[in-house]
Design goal:
The protein is α+β, with helices and mostly antiparallel strands. About 30% of the residues lie in helices and about 40% in strands. The chain has a domain at about 30-135: Immunoglobulin-like. Strands 1, 2, 3, 4 and 7 form a 5-stranded antiparallel beta sheet that branches. Strands 6-5-8-9 form a 4-stranded antiparallel beta sheet, with no helix packed on it.
Amino acid sequence: MSSRSLLRALMTIIIAGALISTLSIAQAAAQQQISLEALSDQGTFIVEIIWTPDDIGRDNTFEIRFIEPETSTEIEEMEYDIMVYEESGSQQLRRVDQTTSEQRLSFEEPGSYTLRIDDIEGLGESASFPIQVTPEFPVGVLGVLAGLIGAIAILARRNSNNLFRF
């Protein structure tokens, strides 16, 4: 096998690997879910939250479930208040008398927050969840990197001096 053929094969492998990793990361980011669980402060309910994070400024989805601790049975159509506090303690969001199991919340800044489910079923019980909001890795960066590698491969083929000669 000539060095030119070897170089072409190597560049093909690098480009294919970069493109495949870009697709894998995009799928993983789209499917990432975080499961959180806490016992209410008086022990009457287990509150389970499935958090599907999204980019800063976009809606994050919170699926909220209430479980009876002794039987592990989900209790449906519960009423609750939901609040979000910033790390400083200031309240960012407050929604009262909620009955839906899905909440959509957006965060404008990365950082530490506390999600609080309060006054569950009018009993004054609550559960708190610390959450860390981080910026998502921009998948587009990998696409640019793959394009750059492809451009280098094309230039190497056209350049008689061979850019990859050691």
